[in-house]
Amino acid sequence: MPGPNIIIVGGGLSGLCLAHALVAQGCSVTVFERDPSRNARGQGYRLTIDDTGSESLQACLPPRNYDFIRATAGAVGKTGAFVFLDEHARELHRFTFDLEAGERRGHITGQVDRHTLRQALFAGLGDHVHFGKAFAHYEEVPSGVIAHFADGSTAEGDMLIGADGTNSRVRRQRMPEAEPRDTRIRGVFGRTPVSRVDLPVLGRLLTNAGIMALGPRGHVFFCTAMRFREEPPAAAARLGIEGDSWPSDDYFMWAVGVRSLNGADLGELDTTAMHVIAARAVDGFHDDCQALVRASNPNDLVVVPIRAAPPLKRSAPGPVTLIGDSIHTMPPFGAHGANTAFKDARTLAAKVGDRTRPFVVADALDAYESSLRRYSRPVVKSAMRMMFFATADFPFKDAIVRTALRTARVFSR
Question: What is the CATH classification number for the domain harbouring 241?
Answer without folding.
Answer: 3.50.50.60
